[in-house]
Amino acid sequence: MTTTQPGDHHIATALARVRERIDAAARAADRDPAHITLVAVSKTKPAARVAEALDAGQRDFGENYLQDALAKIETLAARDPLWHFIGDIQSNKTRDIASGFAWAHAVDRFKIARRLSDQRPGGMAPLNVCIQVNIDGEASKSGLAPDDVPELAEQIAALEHVRLRGLMAIPAPADDFETQRRPFAALRALMDQLNADGHALDTLSMGMSADLEAAIAEGATHVRVGTAIFGARDT
Ligand SMILES: *Cc1c(COP(=O)(O)O)cnc(C)c1O
């Protein structure tokens, strides 16, 4: 395979490749690629790498380690990136997420949603929120059981300073396209059901480096891509 060193990784090139994958998947699904937001997952990567992506025209970034994210948010404030918090949210993190981010993708408890709403600073637009759904019943993953989503959606929709936008899921990794596609189809069906019940959700946050094509085939509006843009993460 390749013998690429970490320093050789060209973010602009990697970003262009990911955008090509998104465009191709959108075309295959007869969708407009402009309706698919690429969230570049920069967790664990230094601000300088995020700056390279900004230079290449990328605007949306995903983070899930709060302390690491806050430092980057401060460093890059003048560049005006749009920050998405994509990780689990503990109560003691809600204040910083409510003030530093435009989106929270992984809300699965009302207590957290209420704190985000209460703590969203006045003068900022409502925080965009997705409910994380455990769509394939994977024991190891967080997220709400599908049956419990309608009640939480009702509760969140009533909050003043968050705006319920849609659903998010991280299905179990799978190698083949049809297996990847199944949980994404289920998440889309759940959003359709909520909309039939009176919600106006417009967001499906699904698909990562390995399965973004399958997610786009099933209607993803936000794909969260880390490795394919920034390279492997140190563990
Ligand atoms: C890390 C992470 C991603 C990105 O995964 P890659 O496989 O690196 O593209 C997407 N979503 C969430 C919630 C993550 O934590």
Give me the secondary-structure topology.
Layout lengths: L10 H18 L8 E5 L5 H9 L4 E4 L2 H10 L6 E4 L8 H7 L2 E5 L2 H10 L7 E6 L16 H9 L4 E7 L8 H20 L6 E3 L6 H6 L4 E4 L1 H4 L5
Parallel strand pairs: 1-2, 1-8, 2-3, 3-4, 4-5, 5-6, 6-7
The structure holds pyridoxal-5'-phosphate.
The site of pyridoxal-5'-phosphate has 13 residues, from strand 8 and helix 9.
In the CATH hierarchy, what is the architecture at level 2? Alpha-Beta Barrel
Mean pLDDT: 95
What's the β-strand tally?
8
What characteristic shape results from the CA principal axes? globular
**Tally of structural domains:** 1
Q: Spell the H/E element sequence.
A: HEHEHEHEHEHEHEHEH
Distance between the termini: 21 Å
For the sheet with most strands, the description reads: 8 strands, parallel
Strand portion, in percent?
15-25%
Q: Into which percent range does the helicity of residues fall? A: 25-40%
> Any idea what the radius of gyration is?
17 Å
Q: Which structural category do the helix and sheet elements fall into?
A: alpha/beta
